[in-house]
Amino acid sequence: MINRNDSDLSIRESSNVVNENDLVVNENDLNDTQKYKHLWVQCEKCYGLNYKKFLKSKMNICEYCGYHLKMTSLDRIELLIDPGTWNPMDEDMVSLDPIEWDSSELDSSELDSGELDSDELDSGELDSNEEESYKDRIDSYQRKTGLTEAVQIGTGELNGRPVAIGVMDFHFLGGSMGSVVGEKITRLIEYANNHSLPLILVCASGGARMQEGSLSLMQMAKIASALYDYQVTKNLFYISVLTTPTTGGVTASFGMLGDVIITEPQAYIAFAGKRVIEQTLKKTVPEGSQESENLKSKGTCDFIVSRQFLKLTLDMIFDMHFFRNRK
Ligand SMILES: [Zn+2]
Question: Region Disordered: what ranges (predicted)?
Answer without folding.
Answer: 105-137
